[in-house]
Amino acid sequence: MDSMDFFALRELFNRSRILLCFNGPISRSLIEEIGNALKNYLQADNALPAAAMDVFGVYIEMTQNIRHYALAMGYDDLDSSATVVVARDGDGRYLVQAGNLVEPADGAALMQRVNELAALDKTELKAAYKAQLRQPRDENARSGAGLGLIDVARKSAQPLCASLSPVNEGRAFFSLRAVI
User: Fold this and answer.
1) What is the DSSP letter of 28?
2) For residue range 140-157, what is the model confidence (pLDDT) as tens digits?
């Protein structure tokens, strides 16, 4: 491993107001452990209970989606890695962002869905959530970008923001950000 300037990394984290950062293969137990650390941090930070619940819920939804996708695709540890960041912005809001490798077509479909949801206001998001709840669930269909994503959009104080960047070996890196 190359030598790394940890002080510079620390300064970057401080400038960016990063509270929690994780990068690597993500398991169910790791999601739980990081979630517990996040809950403890939010409590110590005196986050309002509603905000703390929303931040935690968005973190869980994003990381579980990454884990489920990687398992469904049969990705190895390296390709199933997640990058997760929880930070504060200048207005004191929490930023929850997570990203992972995806197949380009899946990433494009996710981008389209995120953009559709970003164009909706709170009333329209509530209606979309209720409509999705009423949809019959096909046991054979691959889930994703449904109820959980709508819930993340509803909890976000700003429209969801996503990016898709091509990477080597025919994959892309998808990243989603919610502001709580």
Assistant:
1) H
2) 555 566 899 999 999 999
